[in-house]
Each structure stands twice: as C-alpha cells, then as structure tokens.
Amino acid sequence: MVFDWEGFDKSKLFQTRLERRKRRLGEDEVDEDWKKDLGEVATRIWEWWRPIVAEGNKEFPAFKFALKRIALLQVSSCDVERVFSQLKLVRDRCNDNLLEDMLEVRLFALCNGNLKSLLIKAWEFPLVDVDDEDDE
To answer: Is the separation of the CB atoms in 43 and 11 below 8 Å?
Structure first.
C-alpha cells in the first residue's frame, strides 16, 4: 500500500495553528505547506494507520495504543539544550578551571535544584571504608 500524503484534508488543529501564525506574523510571512508542520505530519501518519488498527483488530490489541503514542508524540531536544546552556553558564563563571568531577557536581546541582533532601538521605547511610572491608 502506497502512502498518499496528499490524500487527506488539513486537520482542524493545523488550520487553527495556521490562523494563529497569520495573526502573529502576517499573511505573507506564513508558509501554508503542511509538510513543515510536525503536528500535521503526525496526524496524517495516524490517519493512514487508523484503518489498519481498527477497533475490531483482535490479533494485536495493544498495537493501536502503542502506535498512537509513537505517531503523535513529538520528540523535543529542549531538555538537552537546557542542560548544555547550564553547562556553558558554569564553565563561563568558573573560567574552564574546574576538574571534571566538580563540573559534574555543579551541573547536577544546578539542573536538579534543591538537593537538601537527597543529601540528608545520603547522610543517613554511612559510607563503608574500603580498607575496613579488606580487614574482615
């Protein structure tokens, strides 16, 4: 079966996004090509799969659920970009003079916020000295 990208009408969500962009940027600045809108691409992929995973499909009962999650989930790299921004901030403030371990600790603390409760829990479990284990 050949996938006909053009065989589907524009979704209502895509049309709404287009209208918002037109109001914000102006009529001439908005590209109406649905192929550049990841939400519309995901919707069209789902529309193509919909007859295949119809409600009556008894062979793969969880296939519809899994496919819907995969097709409609848009992957984002913003979390990774935030961590790299924080890394740059730490390196700029410390003039690249940090050891790798200290850089990792500072970045971990910066990205994970208040670590007081984690440190309290860690303090409750004393560290075992390696030399003490060898003596036994």
So the answer is: yes
